[in-house]
Amino acid sequence: MIVYGLTIILLIFLSPLVTSFIKMIKMYLLYKKPIPIFQGYRDFSKLLSKEMIISKETSSITRIAPYLVLSPLLLILFFLPPIAGGEYYVSFIDAFTITGLISLSTFFLMILGLDSASSFGGLGSSREAFISALVEPAMILALFSVSMMGNNLGLGQASVNLNNDFPYAHMASYLFAAISFFILLIAENGRIPVDNPETHLELTMVHEAMILDLSGFYLMLIESAGSIKFMIFASIFASLFMPFGLHLPIFLGIIVFVLKIFFIAILVSLLEVNTAKLRLFKVPNLLGIAIVFAFLSLITFYVLGA
Questions:
Q1: Model pTM greater than 0.85?
Q2: CA–CA separation, 148 vs 154, rounded Å?
Q3: Residue 262 structural domain
Q4: If 0-12 CB within 10 Å is exposed, 13-18 middle and 19+ buried, where does residue 31 land?
Q5: Which of 64, 142, 178, 257 is 20 to 30 A distant from 298 in Cα terms?
Q6: Which DSSP category does 89 fall into?
């Protein structure tokens, strides 16, 4: 229990570091001067010291929503598969619960964008709803499929089972689910090619459009939620689709897990540098691929047993 509590603190602490690491790798690959890897912590400290300016057109939702965006994501941290030692807090949390909590956070973010009473906020909320509606079914199918390969609907126990007995006989289904979930990791975290997290152009932005009117502490909460959300997806991918390291001593297991997270961050950086952002109405094609691969994973597992 103590170990699991410490791992949750570790995930929260690492989330700004991983986000800064992705930016640093991208700038290095683009032959620009890279930012310091601890830039995320500096940005959060600056936001804490800045004044909060709230438009008079907004309601009390703007003051409440940032906490509601962050809260479901913090709750998910208690439900994640173990990262070391095979210890986990809740064993019966399945794909529907994880997807529902992520969708709840997204819902409050969309409400926040709409409450700003600006055209940008409504634009971003509309686009976010459009993308989330396509992400959720694929995510449920992919997590459900890999849970079945782990012989347990609970993600925590499924991760332990995959680590103990890797499903070599179902490698095709496993790879289909991994491809689907990686696409969802990109889409749900607003990375290229679905969204550009560094743009402020009204023709392209999705996530940034919903938080343009925020500043100070509220903006820090939203940025923290974004970092933690990426850590949640990266942690699930590392635990379910890179299932090794649980049998190591706890200290070594944590080091292996951190290395897996940074490896995923490097993959995301390479993808963003080498691809262009898709037009909004091309995004369903990409997410449709994720749905097809997730569905193929289930069909291949149940029908062909491969």
A1: yes
A2: 9
A3: 2-304
A4: exposed
A5: 257
A6: S
